Amino acid sequence: MPTLSERDNQIIWHPYTQMKTAASPLPIVKGEGAYLIDEDGRRYIDAVASWWVNLHGHGHPYIADKIHEQLMTLEHVIFAGFTHPPAVTIAERLQKHLPDNQARVFFSDNGSTAVEIGIKMARQYFFNQGIRRSKLIAFDEAFHGETFGAMAASGDHNFFRAFQDDLFEVWRIPAPVDEAKSQEALAKLEAHLKTGEVYAFIFEPLVLGAGGMLMYTPEILDQLIALCHRYDVLCIADEVMTGFGRTGTTFASNQLKEQPDIMAMSKGLTGGTLPLSITTCSAKIFDAFWSDDKMKAFFHGHSYTANPVGCAAALASLDLLEGDACQADIRRIMDRHAAFAEKLKGHATLKRVQQTGTILAIEFKTAEGTSYFNQLRDKLYFFFLDRDILLRPLGNVIYILPPYCMTDEQLDLVYGAIEDCLTMVIAEVGAV
Ligand SMILES: Cc1ncc(COP(=O)(O)O)c(C=O)c1O
Hints:
alpha/beta; Aspartate Aminotransferase, domain 1; Aspartate Aminotransferase, domain 2; seven-stranded mixed β-sheet
């Protein structure tokens, strides 16, 4: 009998994987709390929350029950011309966590489309008013997803070279990760805004995820947003990764004084159980589509828009997220990360140790410099996997982005493995 991995190798094409050279995928048959369990019963600590989606642990019985209940009541209905309780309720409940100006909720089913929708809303907002603006601004190191608009908004990650000729032009500013970059970002942003051609600025608030877990302050983001608003340019907060507690608040935007006009969220929305996403916007945006003219409508919708089961999962996950136990876990993880970061600071082989909320990023010094394709990546990945820990390095950057149920003991296992790893890296590449 062929194994699951052997069967997989014959038929499956995996994401972000060079199929010729990659190792066989791990056959995971069960999830339990912070653990992923393979077919031989080996348990891996999921320290990256399965691509940043999982909030409360795998196989959570409360969410599973609510999903089951919804499946037996209404599994799906077209969302054009129809509505249903879970969609309206999740929209109402989420609104309480969003910046005050967010007035309308538009559903889709993954992070890339949530972003795509945000960009389209912003562009059509001006179009519907007869104003021609065609330029989007984004950070150099941004990552916003894999649909064409989201790829265009993303920085040059090498991933998207094949499509470069087809991507619309996006003007860039550096991520404001230090004082010099902040000044440069402000100056470049203002120069772009002065052209009068810009319709929106899109950003990952506080943490640029796939770009290397690059972190920056709410203060500088406030300045960038305020500058955009001075030029009547819309701001789109891509909270696909940062949403639902990752940065310590429900949304990273909750830490801002300024308010984004549009927000995109997905990943943690359902606690990591089902694909669902949301794009929200202010009343001002919605009003530009509100018309007797049918052509001013927003012509966008997916088959599974506002899937009731996904919405029920989102409601169940929000019940847990709002609970005292989960909020205490978020604070506990933040405190533990801070203590561990302090311990690592100044280590000879590290270029950067940085924390925002429950995300801890550690960047290794290497001769190659910072890059997703850094040779250290695979060594790090397998080093941790050998120790039953799933960390998925972004090149020479490792990060912990745990489900909030991860216990102190499990965190200690991850921290301990990272300390061992420092010795391995020095042996492999030396302290640069
Ligand atoms: C900030 C951000 N935006 C958008 C996306 C795309 O989300 P999805 O993979 O669900 O399409 C990602 C995925 O990692 C992301 O990190």
